[in-house]
Amino acid sequence: MYYGYSAKVYEWINRFVTLEPLAFELWSYVESERQFFSYPIHEDDIARMSQADKIRHELATRDVTRKHYNFEDYWIGSVGRTLYDMFVNKYSKKMWSIPSNTLLDTFSWSAKDNPINTGSRHAYKGSHLAYPVGPTGYNPYFEKLLDHPRIRTIFGQNVSSFDLDAKTAILADGTRLQGDVLISSIPIEELCENRLGELPYAGRKFIPFVLPTKEICPGNIRFLHYTGEEKYTRIVEYKKLTKHEADDTLMVMELPSNDKEGGKLYPYMIRKYMDRAKEYQRTLPQDVYSTGRLGTYRYSTIEQTIAQAFGTLKMITGRSIKGMENEFFNIGDVNIIKERKAG
Ligand SMILES: Cc1cc2nc3c(=O)[nH]c(=O)nc-3n(C[C@H](O)[C@H](O)[C@H](O)COP(=O)(O)OP(=O)(O)OC[C@H]3O[C@@H](n4cnc5c(N)ncnc54)[C@H](O)[C@@H]3O)c2cc1C
């Protein structure tokens, strides 16, 4: 799903694919209540929660001006202990395979922007939400970008090592690819052969299953999150994103997995690892660039990754294309998000 706050990046990608705006809602299943509720937590749902009075008291007495320095502290400060336990606590530990959410220590946010949704139940209000509804999704974007006589694309081959000083990538079959500039989007610690230590990632196993019914999720609900002891974090009904027409429906269950099969999907928002990634960046020789979600070890979206790529272009050529590189923002840059929402 395309999700972002930059009108410029949205217009850029919309030139290549047919982005169809989506009204987007998601539900969280709270096992202790045996019910689905809207997520972000919606004020109108509180009345049907078994601990409604306690929740209202916790919301009324929270200090929204306090700064918070880790994920748990932020959430308890924002919504109170009871809602945190219902919606966030186990979900986040499951999502990241961690024993405590205090380990996610890169927060320095305050909760002035109310984390309780009001009015319509749409998620990510004020953002650009869309899906490339063509039969091949985002493919036309990549096909167009690569359609140049001087570009050669090699598919299905892994880079197994690098000679960074020589700006050379070495493929598994021994082929050496040398350039004037080397740009990598694989995990930065692999690019640097783990010289400063490994970086951890959360991974996922995806379990697709088809069910014999036209549609499962009602209305604009496209994702279901599971916040309790269930092994899975999320189930997505894909045709509700892709607009695919069929009598059956494809659901995909996501199971956290930190083994090799789970892959390197989510960089951890843990200071020491993010600092290590920055240290790796500092050690890169001239004309070697590491970019993208894994290349910078940032929990970034498609929009942020595209903006980052324009940043890399500017670093290499000195050229700015319509200031696209300035569209990047970091996960805690709430002021930028607010400004763009207003715009
Ligand atoms: C489950 C999940 C759901 C997401 N949903 C959304 C969403 O709805 N909206 C959104 O905006 N963002 C979403 N994201 C984030 C989005 O996928 C990333 O921001 C984006 O894909 C990052 O692009 P990238 O090019 O930096 O990295 P990637 O897309 O991760 O590409 C890196 C590539 O490098 C390849 N690679 C790694 N090692 C090697 C090697 N040694 N040799 C050769 N190739 C190698 C990998 O196979 C991969 O293809 C999601 C991420 C995940 C994990």
Notes on the protein architecture:
There is one protein chain. By secondary structure, the protein is α+β, with helices and mostly antiparallel strands. The protein contains eleven helices and 18 strands. The protein has a domain of 117 residues. Helix 3 runs antiparallel to helix 4. 30% of the residues are buried. Bound molecules: flavin-adenine dinucleotide. The site of flavin-adenine dinucleotide (FAD) has 18 residues, from helix 9 and helix 10.
Instruction: Tell me the strand percentage band.
Output: 15-25%
Q: How helix-rich are the residues, as a percent range?
A: 25-40%
Low-confidence stretches: none
How much is the radius of gyration in Å?
22 Å
